[in-house]
Amino acid sequence: MLQADFSSWSIYTGPSNLKTIINGPNCPWVVGNWNGINANTSKEELKKDIDYRIDIIIKAFNKMLSSFKTYNRHFVIPEFFFHCTQGPYPNIKIDDKNYPFEYIVTTLKSKIEEAIPKDNNYYTVVIGSALTSNIEDYTTFLASNEVIERQNQLNEALSNGLLSNFKTHNFRTWKRELLNNKHTSSSLKAFYANR
After folding, report:
1. Beta-ladder partners of 84
2. Is the dihedral of CA 79, 65, 109, 51 positive or negative?
3. Sign of the dihedral defined by the CA atoms of residues 170, 79, 133, 56, in that order
4. 170 phi, psi to nearest 5 deg
5. CA distance 14 to 83
6. Chain segment 127-149, per-residue pLDDT in tens
7. CA 24 to CA 165: how far, in whole Å?
8. Under DSSP, is residue 180 helix (H, G, I), strand (E, B) or coil?
9. Cα–Cα distance, 142 to 131 (Å, whole number)
10. Is the pTM of this model over 0.85?
11. CA 108, CA 80: separation in Å to the nearest integer?
12. If you count DSSP H runs as helices and E runs as strands, how many of each does the chain have, helices first?
């Protein structure tokens, strides 16, 4: 019988403060905030965000190593873990040769290979997905006629009383924390906080 250890990192990776502002049956509009550490979409800031995310993945992976008991070991990173404060990473080269997705794959592969011990066990690491965009310049894109038209439609709909409901809504947010637990592999625990 094949024995295997499965460990997944349970963290919320979607936008926070989600609020439906137009509850249309054909096209509801939802707003929220993306969390990240980049201040803008320059290649330096995007690289900083990606490098930070890779660093905490390696820390989480290293935390899980002591919990594995079999030789067949699996570690899963949640879907959409890779995104910036603007949502998808724009389509620019962040290290003068790689776009965000290629940079994530190349860098994470190298860091994971360094982190995996030379212990004759089998390791599988599933990195999920990365949010990317074919947009290169978000500033220009947000000033385009299509976006302005869509924003005007939203502003018109919100002027009909929806905006006041949106501003007074108490948001529920997801909060994740790293909890130290020396007895189990569940040292990466998550909890839901209602603020």
Report:
1. 87
2. positive
3. positive
4. -85, 115
5. 9
6. 888 999 999 998 898 889 998 99
7. 16
8. coil
9. 18
10. no
11. 15
12. 5, 7
